[in-house]
Design a protein that fits this description.
This protein has 281 residues and is an alpha/beta fold. 35% of the residues lie in helices and 23% in strands. Strands 6-7-10-9-8-11-12 form a seven-stranded mixed sheet, with helices on both faces. It has a five-stranded mixed sheet with strand order 3-2-1-4-5, with helices on both faces.
Length: 281
Amino acid sequence: MVSVNAYLDVGNSRIKVSVGGKPGADLPSETCEWPALTSGSDQTDKALSQSLHSTFSRFGKRKIKRFYLASVVEPARFERLSAALRQLAPQAELVALKVKKRCCRVRTDYAPNQLGIDRFCAVIEAYARAEQHAAIVINCGTAVTVDAVDANGVHQGGVIMPGVLAALKGLENAAPALATPERSNTLQPLSYPNAQFAHSQIGLPLETQSGRVAGMRLLFGAGIEQAILALKAALADDNTAVMISGGDAAKIHELLDPQLKVRVEPNLVLSGLIRIARARR
């Protein structure tokens, strides 16, 4: 049996996995949700192990040589994941990737410990897919990040805002009477006449649920558009590519002005992770 590497994009809401894949838009990947984590809970650890086993089994029988991880979770949760991976493949080495000042033709002026590895991976992959032209990359997960890289491969920085679910949970915590809707319904199109884009034709919501969803559509549509325009102005490059990726990418993409020419690009973080791992060889 041939040994292969496995790659894990470890986010706060879910874990995205690829086994033996090559970076790019057609990278095969699978996703598993984090189980509810309770400190010291054997049942939770078992659920995590079962979820990972099920996820990896979808790639067929493979002998894992090395796990490469790009993780943004807190140390306690990372240790639980590490233990579950050791159970899955005791022979495999675990490598937690870190941000470097230079990698894969990209340079950042951030202090490495101040830039999330997920953002670094996404910028590296976006720059590669833009064929070394300037790029703006939007990553939609627990947080929404918007980063810019210029044509010389210099990461110019970016902005961070709450993700859809985080924003709704924050609202619920501050105002408990406003119940958070199910994640799958958070940004569904509203049933208002002619409401093609929430930020331009929002209608007049007459009840709490519609008002909350309409507000979220305005917040994310307008907020991300303004971030794109600000970063485009900073880059001052007419050939700038704009890409969006992450769990909520498709829903948020619908809210953005088509004239901005934002394109949905799957697996930016996971593909960038693979590029960084290969650069270590």
